[in-house]
Design goal:
Layout (H helix, E strand, L loop, with lengths): L1 E6 L19 E2 L2 E2 L2 H9 L4 E6 L4 H8 L8 E6 L8 H5 L1 H4 L4 E5 L2 E5 L2 H6 L7 E7 L7 E5 L5 E6 L8 E2 L3 E4 L3 H7 L10 H10 L3 E5 L4 E5 L3 H18 L6 H7 L5 H11 L3 H10 L1
Parallel strand pairs: 1-4, 1-6, 4-5, 8-13
Antiparallel strand pairs: 2-3, 6-12, 7-14, 8-11, 8-12, 9-10
Helix pairs in contact: 10-11
Keywords: Magnesium, Metal-binding, Nucleotidyltransferase, Transferase
Pfam families: NTP_transferase (PF00483)
EC number: 2.7.7.24
Length: 286
């Protein structure tokens, strides 16, 4: 399975913060936001990852992340000229995906929780599509999934004015290779975007859609607003300082899953110098 991180868009809901910098490069406590979704893909063993950025931000991402060799991965970069919807990620990344399955994660989504890694790893060999559901207070802001009394999926709607359930669909999706052809069939919605909910509906109608409900022990943040960005920062700060473990440390994930050895960690320590991040890696080797 390959991975795509969609890190485009203009971040207008965060203006003026994002006028001169990509939203996905903003700090969430002690790391750039992009580290968190990247660590999620690495957590499930994905090493080949495509970053889709805006034209003006691509060089900044390349400067930050390089070619991925420092964490035992292969990173590629391409451009989304305009934010025309999530489904476009699969047509933009068609050549990168090739004949493989693919996971898509949004660059401004942060996930954490007990059992989260196990839940994700169960989706890597998906036949069809696997998405997730998370209970929220404001489902009208998201794609919404409706269940019957037996937890069978009845419908999927994108940002409905009157949601049929409280379950939002987070920005993390696993698909087999049919997603590329499905994406080519998606027409722009009334919002002028190619909605990923349309792809999910295609899989649902084909009887090939799984939906995993995230439990109470799992947390999800969509950091698209100032309030949610602040909430995510506070969440990461409190957890890390109380548990003495770091969330979203890509070198640690790479080391634990044997993408890299001690030599790469030592190089990272030199790179990060006296920062809190570098000190954490130093303690990791101890």
């Amino acid at each position: 399975m390959k991975g795509i991180i969609l890190a485009g868009g203009t971040g207008t809901r965060l203006f003026p913060i994002t006028i001169s910098v990509s939203k996905q490069l903003l700090p969430v406590y002690d790391k750039p936001m992009i580290y968190y979704p990247l660590s999620v893909l690495m957590l499930v063993g994905i090493k080949e990852i495509l970053f889709i950025t805006t034209p003006q931000d691509q060089k900044a991402f390349q400067k930050l992340l390089g070619d991925g060799s420092q964490v035992g991965c292969k990173f590629e970069y391409t451009i989304q000229e305009e934010p025309k919807g999530l489904a476009e990620a699969f047509t933009i990344g068609e050549e990168f995906i090739g004949n493989d399955k693919v996971a898509l994660v949004l660059g401004d989504n942060i996930f954490h929780g007990n059992g989260f890694g196990s839940l994700l790893r169960s989706k890597v060999d998906v036949n069809g599509a696997s998405i997730f559901a998370y209970p929220v207070k404001d489902p009208e802001r998201y794609g919404v999934v409706e269940f019957d009394e037996n937890n069978k999926v009845l419908s999927i709607e994108e940002k409905p004015k009157v949601p049929k359930s409280k379950y939002a669909i987070p920005g993390l999706y696993f698909y087999d290779n049919k997603v590329v052809e499905y994406a080519k069939q998606v027409k722009p919605s009334a919002r002028g975007e190619k909605e990923i909910s349309t792809i999910n509906q295609m899989y649902l109608e084909a009887g090939e859609l799984e939906v995993g409900v995230m439990t109470r022990g799992m947390s999800w943040f969509d950091t698209g607003t100032v309030e949610s960005l602040d909430d995510a920062t506070e969440f990461i700060r409190v957890l890390q300082n109380r548990q003495s473990t770091m969330i979203g440390c890509i070198e640690e994930v790479a080391f634990i899953h044997k993408f890299i050895g001690r030599d790469k960690i030592e190089s990272a320590i030199d790179k990060y110098e006296k920062s809190k991040y570098g000190e954490y890696l130093r303690n990791l080797l101890k």
